[in-house]
Amino acid sequence: MLSGGNRFVYWLSHYIVDVFTHFIPAAVTIFSINYFDQNVPQAEYLFALFSFVNPLFLYTVSFFFENDAKASIFIRILYFAVGGIAPIAMQILNIINRQTIEWGLYFKPYFYHFPIYNLAIGYIGIQNRNLIEKVHHREGELTNWDWLIAGESVWRMLCELVFFYFAVIFFEYRIYDKYLRLAHSYGKMAIGKLYQTISRKKSRVLYKMKTDFEFVDTED
Q1: Which of 66, 117, 146, 216 could form a disulfide with 142 if both were Cys (CB 3.0 to 4.6 A apart)?
Q2: How far apart are CA 5 and CA 127, in angstroms?
């Protein structure tokens, strides 16, 4: 960030630009869905929500890297794995056998921390709504925003919107420095007290050894 600049204005301006930048591929995707007559109704709401959440996620991740190039490479690999491979893998695990279903249930909560995974799973859920209704014997009862369809993905992205918003504030204003300083000071105090305790015990042992030696010497 430029020195002397207002942090709030800086991040807000970048966020607005990035949200609209996300809207462009989202609009192209929605146009393609309608053009090719894909049965994914209301998917535009998923893409719109993702456009608001994903920039905040990217900002949070960027704080862990020294430069944008390294962060960009990491994000591309992460999104290929979590947004491409993971959703397909979860779908495959859910249809093989009971053991693979248990594996899928174990790993699924970890993937839900990523907006790109929520977008993919929510999209797949809407696309396969009829199949999900048949599997759960609820034909015609579920909407796109029920938990079994895309509801869980939407809920998690809303939570991520709030979480990553505060994460950006936490890292940008270096709030963690305060807690690190406190931890460092408490650590120094604890080490100091430990050193004092060891010194006192050492003094007692030496004093006892000295008195025992004097006592033996007197008897001789």
Answers
A1: 146
A2: 46
Q: How far is CA 91 from CA 116, 138, 220, in A?
A: 16, 20, 88
Cα gap 14→8, rounded to integer Å: 10
Taking the CA atoms of 43, 46, 48 and 50 in sequence, report the sign of the dihedral they define. negative
CA-based nearest residue to 46, from 121, 143, 100, 133: 121
DSSP label of 151: I
CA dihedral 60, 17, 26, 152 (to 10 degrees): 40
Q: Side-chain half-sphere of 217: how many Cα atoms within 13 Å?
A: 6
pLDDT by 10s per residue, the chain, length 220: 445 458 888 889 999 999 999 999 999 999 999 888 888 888 999 999 999 999 999 999 998 888 888 888 999 999 999 999 998 888 888 778 888 888 888 888 889 999 999 999 999 999 989 888 888 888 888 899 999 899 999 999 999 999 999 999 988 888 776 665 655 555 556 565 656 666 666 566 555 555 655 544 555 5
Inter-axis angle of helices 43-62 and 7-35, to 10 degrees? Answer: 140
The pTM assigned to this predicted structure is 0.76
Kindly report the number of other CB atoms within 10 A of residue 36's CB atom. Answer: 7
**Phi-psi sector, 137: left (phi>0), alpha (psi -120 to 50), beta:** left
43, 47, 66, 77, 92 from 15: Cα distances, Å:
23, 16, 20, 23, 36
> Are 43 and 120 in contact, with CB atoms under 8 Å apart?
no
